Amino acid sequence: MKTDGKYFTKAITILIFEDFYSKEKSGKKRERKITEGLTKCENEVLELVAQGIGNREFGVRHFISVKTVETHTSNILDKPGLKNTSELIRYASKNNIISMD
Predict the structure, then answer these.
(1) 49: closest CA among 2, 81, 87?
(2) What is 35-94's CATH number, 3.30.70.360, 1.10.510.10, 1.10.10.10, 3.40.50.720?
């Protein structure tokens, strides 16, 4: 199999397919770690969301608009496929990304 100029052997292709198919068949969602792809600013937004800091206050503290904060929050939610801030907090706490202390 060729993707962007790189080839996978038949054995690797079969392993990838079998892994994907077994997860699809079992109904388990493929979970991605949220912090792996976050920018520095997105990490800061995540930490302050966990502390209960609102978008407006975050924007004031970092000299950015509320819309920019909302965009960062939306990007954070999209990466692991979360729907709202409550799911984000639960996910981040469960995965030891943030501390609820």
Answers:
(1) 87
(2) 1.10.10.10
